[in-house]
Amino acid sequence: MKSKTVAVATLGCKVNQYEAAAIVSLFRSKGYSEVDFTEPAGVYVINTCTVTHLSDRKSRQLIRRAVRTNPEAVIAVTGCYAQTSPGELMSLPEVDLVVGTSDRDKIVDLVEASSKAEKINAVADIEKACFYEELPAPAGQGRVRAYLKIQEGCRNFCSYCIIPYARGPLRSRQPEAVLNEAESLLAAGFKEIVLTGIQTGAYGVDLPAKTSLAAIVEKLLRISGLSRLRLSSIEPNDLSPELIELILHSKIFCPHLHIPLQSGSDRVLKLMRRRYTTEGYAKILNNLREKMPNLAVTTDIMAGFPGETEEDFEQALGFIKDMAFSGMHVFKYSPRRGTPAAGFPQQVDARVKEQRSRRLIALGEQLTENYASKFAGLTLPVLAEQPFSGRGGCWEGLTPNYLRVVFACLENLSGEIIDIKIEKTGIQYQTGIII
Ligand code: 5AD
Ligand code: SF4
């Protein structure tokens, strides 16, 4: 008999975190109990990411770690790396089962059917997927902020990106299912819902009923008891006038948007097959900021895309500075097999990528500091999340505009929104006092 304990590790984006938590729910409903990934378990699930070669490497490291902790355990690998490279994973002696980004609802049965003698490759052709796959409500998402997945797939095919191949066509979740899950999250005590998806802005385009991201957001905003709604990410071209109207006029919709820019050079944007120019991007941001001067805009930037010259990079730095982002995720370009950019000439040298990435990170930190400093001395509503691990007697939480705030407090304030006067601002977090 295999031990009925499961440990799940996840890498990558918020969609993956959501799905890992749903996988935990699936195992729980079949009588398994969850243990920490560092402990011996009967089953290990590694929910992988493949956005860069580093994600692949980390996925393989987790597989090896699981086997070291319990050599007898069943090792199930799922997620984006599993979807795009099932052969590579099946050839690893440690792996017993590979499930891609679909059929996750069958993972417990597959785990129980697999054995060291009979490995299972359950990866299906994702291009044939037609419907959004419902998974049970995720378990163990904390108690204050919850992710809610509304959509699957991407059809943008940016030249560098493997995600469309890992996630397949656009499939939106039925509006009723989205609303029901939001209601249950609120009933469970959650205060903030973060909408996630692979291309969130494309929500609804594949549904027969005329719906859109703006339409579902409007419905969600009407649910009573919801304190905060946030979007995890949106492509610049998907910011519709209807959605912008909602953001401008709702007190519940957080004034924070993550809008991936990828590069601040028009030449590079074109090579990346991003369908906007720096001028277009700036126009969107300026329009938003005219009406919401304190809006927090965070972004993703890539360093060293093939063909990015020193001049392109300097230009990008200037543009990024002008956009005054409040936070930036920097990725060193990583060629992904099967994507057009992997075959582009003029791949950038690893050392140059590293240098550019460092300069971008430094600029990002400077911009974060600039943005945060605007709030010194002001009082902001903070949603208390958890005790602050860095210092005893303190709690931490987020403001609507995504500033992390640490404040002294001995009571349990989990899930409460408290007015905090910001005293000191910084890159990682701000400190303040309860008003
Ligand atoms: N190399 C590096 N970063 C990448 N991203 C996507 N594909 C690649 C790649 N091949 C980054 C983009 C995207 C984020 C999720 O990952 O910046 O927005
Ligand atoms: Fe990749 Fe572009 Fe899709 Fe984002 S929108 S996941 S960058 S292809």
Automatic annotation (TrEMBL):
Top-level class of the enzyme under EC nomenclature: transferase
Keyword Cytoplasm assigned: yes
Stretches assigned to the Radical SAM core domain: 140-370
Residue ranges annotated for the MTTase N-terminal domain, each copy included: 4-116
A GO term, aspect molecular function: tRNA (N(6)-L-threonylcarbamoyladenosine(37)-C(2))-methylthiotransferase activity
Reported function: Catalyzes the methylthiolation of N6-threonylcarbamoyladenosine (t(6)A), leading to the formation of 2-methylthio-N6-threonylcarbamoyladenosine (ms(2)t(6)A) at position 37 in tRNAs that read codons beginning with adenine.
Family membership: Belongs to the methylthiotransferase family. MtaB subfamily.
UniProt name for this protein: Threonylcarbamoyladenosine tRNA methylthiotransferase MtaB
Biological source species: Desulfofarcimen acetoxidans (strain ATCC 49208 / DSM 771 / KCTC 5769 / VKM B-1644 / 5575) (Desulfotomaculum acetoxidans)
